[in-house]
Amino acid sequence: MKVLVVGSGGRDHAIAWSFARSDRVDQVYVAHGNAGIGLTATCVNARTIEEIAAFAAAEKIDLTFVGPEKPLSAGIVDLFERRGLAIVGPNLAASRLESSKCDTKLLLRELGVPVPEFEVFSDPDRARDYVRSVGYPVVVKADGLAAGKGSLVCDEVKDAATAIQEIMEARVFGDAGRRVDIEKRLYGRELSFFCFTDGHSIVPMVAAQDYKRELDQDQGKNTGGMGSYSPHPWLTDQLVEIIMRRVAQPVINGLRERHGIVYRGILYLGLMLVDEADGMVPYVLEINIRLGDPEAQVILPRLKTDLVDICEAILSGRLEDFHLDWEPDYRLCLIAVSGRTKSKKGWYKGYPARYKIKVPIVGLDDVDPECLVFHSGTDWDPDGALITTGGRVFGIVARGATLQAAREQAYTEMAKVSFEGMRTRGDIGRD
Ligand SMILES: Nc1ncnc2c1ncn2[C@@H]1O[C@H](COP(=O)(O)OP(=O)(O)O)[C@@H](O)[C@H]1O
Ligand SMILES: [Mg+2]
Q1: Where are the domains positioned within the chain?
Q2: Is 32 helix (H, G, I), strand (E, B) or coil?
Q3: For ligand 1, which residues put their CB under 6 angstroms from it?
Q4: What global pTM score does this model have?
C-alpha cells in the first residue's frame, strides 16, 4: 500500500521511518519533508491542505497520517473525509483541544478532569485585577497556537502583568492572544502521556522524558526540544491506570457523549503530577492532538506493532483490546541545533534566538548505521551538499540496554558530525 505522511520535522521523519519498516507498505510519501526525510521516503512538494488532498487523490494514497498540529487545525481531516480519503488524525472540532487553551480548560472543568485553578479573560484590565487578587504565582497562556511559546510561567504579580501586556496588548503571538487562560502555578513532576484512540477505546503508549530548555540543568529559554529518552522511569502501570481513569477516558468519552465529537488519532496529555493527601493527582496543563517532537523519535523506534495495523484499527473503531508490543531497550535522542555564530554584522545568538542557516553539515555518513538519524531543518544546496535550514537541525537516536549505554552511544556518534555553530545539550539522559 501507499502511505502519505504530512509534516517536515524530526517527528515526521520518525513517523515516515516507522511506516517504511512495515511489510504492508510499498511506498511512503511525505508532504513536504526535508533532505533527510528524502532518504527514507519520497518528498512531495504539497504545502496547503488542498494541495495535499489533491496529491493523495491523484496518487491513490491508501492511508494518510498527519504529524503536526497546524494542518489538523486547518481541517485537513475533514477535507480528506469529504473526499473519501483515509486519514488518521483528529478532525477540526477535535483539534480545538490544542488550538484553544481556554475552551479546553473550560471543557476539562465541565468534565471533572483535574485542572489547575484557572480563569479565562478577554479583557486585560480584568486579567490584571485577577492576578492581583489570587495571591499565588500564575501561568499566563495565550489561548491560540503559538508554536509552544505562548505560556509564560510567572513568579510574581508584576511578571504576570507583563505577560498580560505582551500577550493581550502587544499581541506578540498575534490573534492567539485575544484571550488568555490564567492558571495557578503548580509544583510537581511534569509528564507527557501519549495514547492512540478511535474515539471509544484508548491504548496508552510508552512514555518519554523530553528536555525543553536550551541549556544543561534546564537553564535558559524554552525550545522545541533538545533531546528525549524512553522508557520513562515514572510511568508505572499504576500511574497509567490513574491517568486513564481520571483524564484520558473522561476526555474521550465526554467529547463523544456531550459534544458529539469522535476523537480519532493521537492524544497527548501534558500533565503535572502532584502528590496530595488523597494520592497523586494528574493535573492537565495542556492537551495536544499529535505526537511530540522529539518524543516520537524515541517512542516509535520502540514500537514493534505495525503502525499500519494501528491506523486501521483507529479508522475502523477496532482499537478495543488492541495490544501494542514494545521493545524493552532504551532509546535516546540527542538534538543538534544551530548555535552561536558570527554574522556579517556581529553575532547570531543561536537557537532559540536568531541563528544562521545554509551552513554545510559534515560527518553524518560516518554515524553508526545502528543509530537512527532523524532530520528537522536540512536541505540540499544546488551542489548537492547537505545544509542547515532551521534551529533544530537533526537528531541522533541511539539504543542501549541501559539509559547510560544509549546516552554514551548518542554522544559518541554526535561527535562525528559537525557544522558551524552546532550545539547540543550535554546532559540528555543524565538524570
Ligand atoms: N499551571 C502550571 N503550573 C506550573 N507550570 C506550568 C503550568 N502550566 C504550564 N506550565 C509550564 O509551562 C510549560 C508550557 O505550558 P503548556 O501549557 O504546555 O503550553 P505550551 O506547550 O503551548 O507552551 C509546561 O511544559 C510547564 O513546564
Ligand atoms: Mg506544552
Answers
A1: 2-89, 123-178, 189-316, 330-423
A2: strand
A3: 116, 139, 141, 148, 150-151, 153, 183, 185-186, 190, 270, 272, 285-286
A4: 0.96
